[in-house]
């Protein structure tokens, strides 16, 4: 019997897997840990320029659009709730809730990114305007790149949702994409608080 089973199985042995965290979720969490280190290096540069060198933030005569960025923050934070709604909906078998949640999340993320691009065109300084301009554009631009990646993931998830690809038993694609999107939201709260408010 054992010999018959051994002959039936081809390929590498089946990997051990924790009963608490699936391999795909663990992979996403480890990826996010590496992204936190990437953001950490940019924040180190920010604190070095601002605290060690003691420059004014923002330096005269520049001003940061705190209100517009605050509204943008509210939009992005709200998108985390719609992402959570989408995941909970498919876990309960509510396909319409999944589709609506993903679509709303995508649209809010798109509004955030377009508003940030509009902010860049009107802010009045460029990356080459000293260390302040460089750090501002690097930190917000790095986050914007992550939002773009998140929107790409959301777009594919939304298309799949409308094609009926997810179910209460098979929703890992929504869960993993949601983890990434929540990371993007939390990182923006840190960027907004550090760059715009403090």
Protein described:
The chain has 198 residues and is mainly α. It has a single domain, classed as Four Helix Bundle (Hemerythrin (Met), subunit A) (Up-down Bundle). It is 76% helix and 0% strand. The chain has 6 helices and no strands. The protein has helices at residues 2-8, 23-52, 66-91, 95-122, 130-162, 172-197. α2 (23-52) runs antiparallel to α5 and α3 runs antiparallel to α4 (95-122). It is globular, with a radius of gyration of 21 Å. The model has no long low-confidence stretch (mean pLDDT 88).
CATH superfamily: Cytochrome c oxidase, subunit III, four-helix bundle
Looking at the structure, the CATH topology is Four Helix Bundle (Hemerythrin (Met), subunit A)
Structural class: mainly alpha
* Count of runs of 4 or more consecutive helical residues: 6
Residue windows where pLDDT falls under 50 for at least 5 positions: none
| Number of E strands | 0
What is the CATH class designation? Mainly Alpha
- Average pLDDT works out at 88
Instruction: Give the number of domains.
Output: 1
Approximate strand percentage? under 5%
Largest sheet: none
Helix content: over 70%
Distance between the termini: 69 Å
Q: Nearest-angstrom radius of gyration?
A: 21 Å
Could you state the order of secondary-structure elements as H and E? Answer: HHHHHH
CATH architecture: Up-down Bundle
- Which geometry do the CA atoms define? globular
């Amino acid at each position: 019997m054992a010999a018959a089973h051994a002959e039936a199985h081809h390929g590498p042995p089946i990997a051990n897997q924790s009963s608490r965290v699936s391999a795909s979720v663990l992979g996403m969490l480890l990826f996010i840990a590496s992204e936190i280190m990437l953001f950490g290096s940019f924040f180190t540069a920010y604190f070095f320029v601002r605290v060690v060198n003691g420059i004014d933030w923002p330096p005269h005569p520049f001003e940061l659009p705190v209100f517009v960025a605050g509204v943008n923050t509210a939009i992005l934070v709200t998108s985390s709730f719609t992402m959570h709604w989408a995941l909970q909906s498919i876990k309960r078998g509510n396909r319409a809730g999944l589709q609506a949640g993903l679509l709303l999340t995508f649209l809010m993320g798109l509004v955030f990114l377009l508003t940030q691009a509009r902010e860049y065109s009107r802010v009045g300084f460029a990356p080459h305007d000293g260390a302040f301009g460089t750090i501002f554009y690097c930190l917000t631009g790095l986050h914007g790149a992550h939002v773009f990646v998140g929107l790409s993931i959301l777009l594919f998830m939304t298309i799949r949702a409308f094609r009926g690809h997810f179910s209460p038993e098979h929703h890992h694609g929504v869960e993993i994409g949601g983890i990434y999107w929540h990371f993007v939201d939390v990182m923006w709260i840190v960027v907004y608080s550090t760059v715009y408010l403090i």
